Amino acid sequence: MKPLIISAVALAVLTACGPQQSQDTSAAEQTKVDKQPADLKGSAFNPNFRDYLKTISSDEFEGREPASAGEEKVVSFIENHFREWGLKPIDKENNSYRQPFPLVKIMPYKVSDMTFSGDNAPEAMKYRTEMMAWTMQVTDEVDLSDSDMVFVGYGIVAPEYDWNDYEGLDVEGKTVVMFVNDPGYATQDPELFNGNAMTYYGRWTYKYEEAARQGAAGALIIHETGPAGYGWGVVAGGSPVRFDLKRENNNMDRAKIEGWITKDSAEKLFAKQGMTLEDARQKALSDDFEAMPLNAQASVSVKNKFEFLDTNNVVGYIEGTKYPEEHVIYMAHHDHLGTDPVREDDPIYNGAQDNASGTAGLLAIAEKFAQQPAPERSIVFAAVGAEESGLLGSAWYADHPLFPLAKAVGGINMDVMNVYGPMKDLVVIGYGNSEMDEYVQPFLEEQGRYLTPNPTPEAGFFYRSDHFNLAKKGVPMLYAEGGNDHITKGKEWTEEQRAKYVAEAYHKPADEYNPDWDLRGTQQDLSAFYQLGRSLANSRDWPQWAEGNEFEAIRKETEEQRK
Questions:
Q1: Interatomic CA distance for residues 200 and 196, integer angstroms
Q2: What does the pLDDT look like over 56-96, one tens digit per residue?
Q3: Do residues 547 and 61 touch, judged by C-beta distance below 8 A?
Q4: At what angle do helices 357-370 and 49-56 cross, to 10 degrees?
Q5: Cβ pair 16, 402 in contact under 8 A
Q6: Which of 97, 187, 234, 312 has its CA 20 to 30 A from that of 394?
Q7: Which segments constitute the Peptidase M28 domain (predicted)?
Q8: What is the secondary structure of 438-493 as a DSSP string?
Q9: Would the pTM of this model clear 0.85, i.e. be above it?
């Protein structure tokens, strides 16, 4: 998961029939936190939610790292509840709710500096401090040698925006250099792409995918903190280990080298062309942009070790009474970061908010559906794995769905729930992307609440959680992370709490269950999500993507299957 949604101001400060309540949770605690006044509609949605959250985030589950003993515990926990409630399994033949999928762990142990040759060759760029490079190809070593460099602007091919940076260009075997984010952000023009709000085309993942489709051997993105949404330390400061799905072709269709270069490194590269970085940006934004050879060749090598692992999604469903293949999807990731044996004080990354809270929410909604008559359409509950490793469990599910995704009505993703109390609002990530916003709004209005957009759309949070893999298949998805406007303490207080979480607990051992959490707001969110799913499952409606959205075209390709 990615950091919680907080305001730009907060980001500046800082620079993803159940069991009874646990016996050690006192009656007084439950009364204080979970018993709700009548005017907070939906705030007592499922009293078992707190127990699920507390259990999944406990030390017993060892941080829920993929392919670990801790993951086995959380998978069994979810599976046992699905079975108890009578949900149907994804694997009917073996009566199993597990959807196994294979991973590969790629561990670079030697990465060279990046060197250059040619008429306009800059000085070598040092690994980590001036550039980052890796390979997703599952091989012992890759060697990018004297690869011609080409500046391709933003590296985007977007027919719906009439934009093609690769038009008429052959980059087979070459190394492409490009800006991060997209032209809408760069210009702040609301008529260009999606204005300030990042589109899929602005994400670094897309840029590497497109470079590979174009046949590039190397793909380098210019890092700038504003358009990237994070500093160079996020790019270069963490572990270089990467995970991916194990594929038959061992990712040999990916570029040999993927990576980043710093802004200063890019300045030096373009200075050799007699240009500044800003000159290059303006060129990339011009209507008559054409890719530009950089008259230099890049060389870099990576040596790898790798390990193959097996992990699991957990998927169950309630079969629709009239239209069983038509379905609504609820999704949350059950994994986290596991343990750090080097730490002596607190080695367990419990991941209470990220994302025991979302998994507990998935269970609470599944339990509620199981207690009611089955709806006309099916309801699918997918607790996916390996999200922290790159949204891999949801990617596997998207390629191997329980029902055809053309028959998916829509979906709700839960990733980091609100633990700060009742909110006047519900923050929607990717607000305006689809009609799912409109479909949930009546259930919020019943609670006296309102929808509000993510305050930092330029950061591209919509593309950083599991719903994204279903969106890429055309499924309209709702992704909301609580609210920012506390009913009594206001927005500033909430922003302070979220900023404190990001600074002190996000992806750290401090992300632990707190018995003092006020879960009334979570309960209201879950109630709205439940009502949204039930309403869609008992209707003939098909929510649509907004006109011109980057996922609209793929949805329209399957329109005949929904008639």
A1: 13
A2: 999 999 999 999 999 999 999 999 999 999 999 999 999 99
A3: no
A4: 140
A5: no
A6: 234
A7: 313-522
A8: HHHHHHHHTTT-EEEE-S-GGG-GGGSSTHHHHHTTT--EEEB---S-BTTTHHHH
A9: yes
